UniProtKB/TrEMBL annotation:
Gene3D superfamilies: lambda repressor-like DNA-binding domains. This is Helix-turn-helix domain-containing protein. It comes from the Bacteria. SUPFAM superfamilies: lambda repressor-like DNA-binding domains. The lineage of its organism: Bacteria, Bacillati, Bacillota, Bacilli, Bacillales. Pfam families: HTH_3. GO terms for molecular function: DNA binding.
Amino acid sequence: MPTQPQQEKHSIEAWSLINRKYLGKGVRVKRFRKPTRCQIRNRVLLAILMANDIKLSQLAEELGVSSRSVSAWVYEGRIPGKNNLEKACNFLGYPRHILFREELLEKSPLICQPEPSRFMKRTLTRSPVSNRILTGLCMVHDLSVSDVSRWIGVHPGTLRKWLHQGTLPSNAFQEKAESFFRIPRSVLFADCILKTDHQIKAQS
């Protein structure tokens, strides 16, 4: 049976481990928690929020819902009720089939990432981003522009045009991007498509 000094020693060691784990990391809180891939059901919604630098709590406040509800939309793949769904679509500027596509919410596949990468923040700060879904997905998965371009077989400058200028790639490159991200091209390049549709309506 442990003696009193031994018990106190074990207790001190236990608290020391807890302090190192929880207190030793400082008090700085990131805008987005670092999720594992399997924790994200709605990658598209999270990508749009990250690309626009909108916290989950901010979205909840704007829509008048709880932060827990918004977290469930992102991390559990839940679809909001009719009223909240309409408010979310209006606020973020995307239709339901982009923000809450059922077949994408059923599973969160691992993308075919050949090796570790890291998203380069200067992609956002260098110039305005037009394709926020594609940019946000790079942020969600910590993918650098140079690595993504190499993995899908396109020049980095071309990929940057997709991100910053909203250029719509050829069908062949759309297919490659779709295969890499495991997301339909109609969603990956929705920003480009919606922009073109708005221009056509404005001209007619």
